[in-house]
Design brief:
Elements lengths: L16 E2 L2 H10 L2 H6 L1 E2 L21 E3 L5 E8 L2 E10 L6 E4 L1 H4 E4 L4 E4 L1 E7 L1 E2 L2 E2 L4 E8 L1 H6 L7 E5 L9 H5 L3 E2 L7 E7 L11 E12 L2 E5 L11 E7 L4 E7 L12 E5 L3 H12 L2
Parallel strand pairs: 2-5, 14-19
Antiparallel strand pairs: 1-12, 3-16, 4-5, 4-9, 5-6, 6-13, 7-8, 9-12, 10-11, 12-13, 15-16, 15-18, 16-17, 17-20, 18-19
Length: about 290
C-alpha cells in the first residue's frame, strides 16, 4: 500500500463566504420540486475508450438505488443557471457540515483569473426522483481553499458547506441523517463504496447511483477509481471506506473531483488527495458553525 502524505501547500488560509439568514431562507424556498428537476448537472462526461486501472478485471457498473441519508444532491445557482452536484454529511462537533467538490460551489474563470461563490445553495439528503426525503438544508457559510480560489488548483478541489439548523425541529443535518467521518491520509489501494447523483434521464431515473470499486493513488496528488455510470452530477460524491451497509455510513477517503474536475468520462473518476489541507479546511469550517 502507498501511504499518502501532504501536498506542502500553504496551510489553511481560506476566507469563508457567509450567507445571510434571509438569503439562506430564500435559497430554501427557491428549490421547488420543479426547479430541482429542471436543474442540469455541473459537469459533462462522455463515454470513450481508456485503459482500465485494474488490467485483469472488468470495470464494475454503478447501479441505481434509492440512496442513503448522509448523501444527497447539492443544488446551486450561478451565472449559467441552476445546476447540481453531489454532497455528503461529514462528522463535525456541531453536526452541520457537508462536503463536496470545490468546483461545485466556487466558479473560477481561467481567462479572467477571477471567481465567485455560487448562491442559492441547498443540500437535499437522499434526494430521490424529485422527493426531498430528509428536507432541504440551506447554507450559512461556504469554504474552499485559497489555492482553488486563486487558480482552481485540481489538487485542492474540495469544499465545505456549513448548513443552517432546521427551524421547526431545532436539529442540525447530521442529527437527522447521520454522518460519515472524514479520514485524511488513508493508505491506498482500498475498497470503497461510492454514492453519487448522475445526470437526470440516465438509467438512474433521477436517483442515486452506487458502486463498489477500488480506490488507488493515481498521480502525486490525485486518487482514482474505475466504475461506469458516474456521469455529470456526481462531482462531490464521497468515497466511503469501510462502509457499513447496516448503518449506511463509512469513512470518507476521497471526494469526486480533482483532475479534470473529476474526470472526462463516466468510467473513470478522480479525487484530490485528502491530506492536511482538507483537515485544516474542515477545522476552519467547524469554527464557522
Amino acid at each position: 500500500m502507498i501511504a499518502l502524505t501532504g501536498h506542502g501547500h500553504s496551510p489553511g488560509s481560506a476566507i469563508a463566504q457567509t450567507v445571510s439568514s434571509s438569503d439562506s431562507e430564500d435559497a430554501k424556498n427557491y428549490w421547488t420540486p420543479a426547479r430541482m428537476k429542471a436543474a442540469t448537472p455541473e459537469d459533462q462526461r462522455r463515454p470513450q475508450k481508456h485503459a482500465l486501472l485494474r488490467t485483469k478485471k472488468s470495470i464494475p457498473q454503478g447501479t441505481a438505488f434509492t440512496g442513503i441519508p448522509s448523501v444527497g444532491r447539492l443544488f446551486t445557482h450561478s451565472k449559467t443557471g441552476d445546476h447540481y452536484c453531489t454532497a455528503s454529511v461529514v462528522y463535525s462537533t456541531k453536526h452541520n457540515l457537508a462536503l463536496t467538490a470545490a468546483h461545485c460551489i466556487y466558479s473560477y474563470n481561467s481567462g479572467t483569473k477571477t471567481g465567485y461563490y455560487r448562491d442559492k445553495i441547498a443540500f437535499v439528503p437522499q434526494y430521490d426522483a424529485g422527493n426531498a426525503l430528509y428536507g432541504i438544508w440551506s447554507a450559512k457559510a461556504l469554504l474552499v481553499h485559497n489555492g482553488w480560489k486563486k487558480n482552481a488548483d485540481p489538487d485542492l478541489d474540495f469544499g465545505f458547506i456549513v448548513l443552517t439548523r432546521d427551524k421547526t425541529s431545532g436539529k442540525n443535518v447530521a442529527d437527522v441523517t447521520g454522518s460519515n467521518r472524514l479520514t485524511p491520509n488513508t493508505a491506498l489501494p482500498e475498497n470503497v463504496h461510492v454514492v453519487g447523483y448522475p445526470a437526470s434521464g440516465t438509467p438512474g431515473n433521477d436517483r442515486a447511483i452506487q458502486c463498489d470499486t477500488t480506490a488507488i493513488h493515481r498521480f502525486k496528488y490525485q486518487l482514482a477509481f474505475d466504475c461506469d455510470g458516474f456521469t455529470g452530477g456526481t462531482s462531490g460524491s464521497p468515497w466511503l471506506w469501510r462502509y457499513d451497509p447496516a448503518k449506511k455510513q463509512g469513512k470518507v477517503v476521497g471526494v469526486l473531483g480533482g483532475y479534470h474536475q473529476g474526470g472526462i468520462t463516466p468510467q473513470r473518476s478522480y479525487s484530490s488527495l485528502l491530506d492536511h489541507d482538507i483537515a485544516d479546511l474542515r477545522d476552519q469550517a467547524e469554527s464557522k458553525g
